[in-house]
Structures are given as C-alpha cells and as structure tokens.
Amino acid sequence: MRRQAAFKTASGCFVYPRHQTAVRPPALLYHQRVRYSHHGPAQQSEPPLPAAGGPSAAPGSTRPYATLNSSVPFTNAPTSPPLSILPLSTIMRSLLVTTISSSPLLFSPSLAFLSVVANPESTFLNPDRNPVLKLIMEQTLYAQFCAGETPAQVKVNIQKLKELGYSGVILGYAREIVMNESEIRALGTASDAAGGAESKAQAIADITAWKDGTLATVDLADDGDFVALKFTGAGKGSVQQLLRRSAPSPALKEAIIEICERAKARNVRLLIDAEQQAVQPAIDDWTIEFQRMYNKGPDQRAVVYGTYQAYLRSTPATLSRHIAIAEAEGFVLGVKLVRGAYLGTEPRHLIWDTKVETDNTYDGIAESLIKREYGDVLKPHSPSPPPPSPSPSPSPSPSTSTSTGRTTSTGHPPFSKVNLVLASHNRVSVERARKLRNQQHRTTGSHQIELAYGQLSGMADDISCELVHAAKAVREQQAEGVMVEVEAPKAYKYLVWGTVSECARYLVRRAQENREAASRTEDTRKAMAKELRRRLVGGT
After folding, report:
1. How confident is the model over 288-324, as pLDDT tens digits?
2. Of 100, 131, 345, 388, which residue has the fewest beta carbons closer than 10 angstroms?
C-alpha cells in the first residue's frame, strides 16, 4: 500500500482491507474458540505485531506493514460490498466531489471560488443572501461535509448515519477562528484595557454566543456521542488569554463549566480541538484542568478529551507529562490522537522534517496508549528539566507533581487510565491499531482501554463503510451465539452544523485537506466509481 504524500488532517480517518469471506464447517464455528486472522483458515496463533519505528527513522524508509482481515471472515458475514450501504445520491455526490478534488485542473478554480464564498464582499457571493448560490452549495459541498442548518435537520442526518451502522457521531458547531501570523501578533500585543467597557461587553457577547452554540450542539448529540469544540471560538478576548497562557476569565470558565456539566448529564463526551501552536500550550493547560474536574468516577470514562498532534516534535513529551499527571492525580486521560491540521500556518521547526517521522510518531503513540505501556516513542515523563514554554506561565501547583516513585514490572512508572479517539485517514495506522486490539481481545477480553475510531464526514467513505461492515459482521455472529475473538470497532463520523455561511471556512479547510491528500482522494474516487458501475449493471 502506497503511503500518502502529504500530512494528515486533524480529525483524520482510517481504513481497512477489503472485506473477505471464508467458509468454515458450522461445527467448528459454533463449538470451538477460533482465532481469526487474515491468513484464512482458523489458526491457533499469530505472528507478533512489528514494533512501530521511532521518529529517527530514515527519511523515505517504510514501516512494517501489518495487515488484518478487518471484517472478520465468518461464514455468515455480509457478502455485499461495504459501499452498498450508502444511498445512490451519496455515491454520486461523493464521486463528483472527489473527481474535482483529485483533478488539479478542476480543483484550483473550485477552491478559489469557495474561498471567495467563505469571505464574501458582495451580496451575490453570499450564500445566505443569494438563494441560487445557497442551493448549489447545499446540494454539493455542504451536503457532503455538514450536518444541517437547523436542529431538526441535524437530528435527521445523525439518525441516518446511525442507521447505516455507525456507533455515533462527533458533532461540532461551525463557529471557529483561524488566524494568520499578523493577526496573532496583533492580538498578543493588544492591551486588556483597549476598548474599555465596550470591549468587555463584546467579550461577554462572544462568550455567550459560543456557549449557546456549544450547548445546543451537546443537546443535539445522543448518549455516547462526542461534541468537538474550540476554545478560540469564544472570541478574540479568549484568544488573548490563550496567547498569554493565562487562566480563562471568570465568564469563560463559567461557560466551560456549564458546557461540561451539560455534557456529563447527557453522557456526551467533549473533544477539545487542537489549534495553532501560538495558543496550544494554554489549551493544554485548560484541558487538563477540566479533565481534573470531570474525568474522575467509578465508570472510568472521560468526559473531556485533549487533542494531540503527532506532526509536532513536542507531542510525545507533552503527552507523557499529561499521562504522569493523570496517574498521579487519579483521573482518566482523554486523548484524541491526530496527525495535525495546521501545517500551512505553523513555524516549520516545530514539525517533524519528514512524513515518515510523523507516521512513526503517530503509530508509536497509538501503540503505547492501546497497551498502556511506554515505548520507544512515548517515553516516561522526566520531571526535570522542564520543557521550555513558548510564553510565561504560572508556577505549577503542588497538585501537578508527577513524581510518584512507583514503577511497574518493566521498570517504568505506572501508566494512567486512558480513553482514546484514534482519528486517522491512514490505512497502516488503523490496521496496526486493529491488530493490537484483536490480539488483546483474545488474551484479555474486555480489559482494554475505551477506543473509538473517527473520521470526517464526506471523506473516505469507502474506508468507513468497511469499518461499519466489520462491526456488523461481529455483532451478527455474536447474536447467533458464536464466540468471537475479534473486536467490533466503534466508528464515528465527524461533522459540523450551522448555516452555509457559518460553515464556509470549515468547507475551505476540508477542500484544502483534500488537495493535501490527493492519493487518498483518488482512492475514494475509484471506489465510488466502482460502486456506481456495480449498481448500474445490477450487481448485489
């Protein structure tokens, strides 16, 4: 399998090998514990999973490629193609979008037009004021990537995804702020007193609008779903606090607490998005503080998750420090692992030199989290010397101490409890994770970390449908009394809601990410074309 040529997105996706079916004697299926693998007939053992390479891997090198049968070769497993679960309208729209995205001739002018629509200077180019433009957007890009404009539309689209077989959704409110370097510098040097009472009133209004939108999103989510949120969405005043790495203002903290309380009451989990490195250290601080408050309890489930970007050199050290804090203070660390989404705006020296290094970092971290063991990439936190901070921060309180003096049988400090959202569009990464989970399932049963797979709505649907297919096969066999020794993966789709104009910047980012992952987009286009041909010739 060829590696992708560009960095992955923040909420990236995952893939499995194509569904296969193997026939076994019914007696063997129903009366023996069978170990399934990609090698076909039942086996008693499997070769160990190759270790993930470290960040020092030579540029251009390839990692060990561990395959697995994603959809479990059961006699009664579904034989229809994974994409058969999608309606014809989705197939045709996906084919149109991926054809444009994978064609340099078509993509550049389309992206330029979409960028203008995202920042319209005339009524004609404003989809909220031009009904014809709005209709075109609604039937193409908006329908492909977004959940709807109204709560009723969002509920309908969430239900449709769950009827397809998804475990749930990751729902986000469209309000977001993405700044260039000059805007960041201007906010960072602005005085708190600038604007006086008018500025403070605007800050409160921004926080209130963000809080209300996020609370509405939590209310739209169902039991077990996720809600994604950005702290920068609370307005420029909040961005200033993040830039200075100060605590959230009383008004903002009160708003975040209200959101967390609502999510906890509804059993909805919150994913705090990663953002640009100018504000990320403070986002990490705030996220850990709210994890302290909400990630404790007998059920050992996280309410608040932080996001960690594997393309940053600092991520392994940052994550290991947070693991040590969570272990010392007794809370569950919620982790969303991504490759990274701000390659075009981040200082280049903060990012690994090669994609191979990013891939190896991602896989090494994922393996350590799934196993709850330190490794070559994710190493135990060393409390001294502390990592340099990009901006002044308050001295750590005694409650942040991470030195317990305890060690495990490996000689490493104990590993905190972890809940993980593995967000990746990368085939190898997800196959490795599935392989690890299936090995654990055979040996430890339910004693595994909470793990969900997430990918963006409208991207790589061929991949996610294979994942849904795999889970469906496992559930069907379990319902028939078959003792299954592989996991039914939990697949989630990430999508945002809001008006066409509110979602426009989000759509620009999605379009840019499609361009940066041309090989993946081409794979999806081919899969959609193949499925359309199958339906036209009457395939089943």
Report:
1. 999 999 999 888 899 999 999 999 999 999 999 999 9
2. 388
For residues 237 and 206, the answer to whether their CB atoms sit within 8 Å is yes
Quickly list DSSP for 307-351.
EEETTBTTHHHHHHHHHHHHHHHT-PEEEEEE--S-TTTS-GGGB
Q: Could you give the 3-state DSSP secondary structure of residue 302?
A: coil
Q: Tell me, what DSSP letter sits at residue 456? A: E
Tokens 């999973």 correspond to 49
- In sequence order, what DSSP letters do the residues of 23-92 get, joined into one string? ---HHHHHHS--B--TTSS-BS--PPPPPPPPTTPPTT---------TT---TTS--S-GGGGS-HHHHH
Place 341 in a pLDDT band, splitting at 50, 70 and 90: confident
Show me where the domains of the chain are located: 26-46+66-386+401-536
β-sheet bridge partners, residue 168: 492
Quote the CA–CA distance of 207 and 192 in Å, as a whole number: 16
CA atoms within 13 A on the CB side of 400: 12
Q: Which amino acid is at 193?
A: A
What's the CA gap between 422 and 210, in Å, rounded? Answer: 26
Q: How many other CB atoms are there within 10 angstroms of residue 538's CB atom?
A: 6
End-to-end CA separation in angstroms for the chain: 27
pLDDT above 60 for 340: yes
| Cα angle 79, 85, 89; round to 5 | 140
Q: Contact 36/487 with Cβ under 8 angstroms? A: no
In contact, 355 and 7? CB cutoff 8 Å: yes
Nearest to 249 by CA among 211, 218, 276, 214: 211
User: What does the block give as tokens for 60?
Assistant: 């251009």
The two most distant CA atoms of the chain are separated, in Å, by 79
CA-closest candidate to residue 316, choices 372, 390, 379, 273: 379
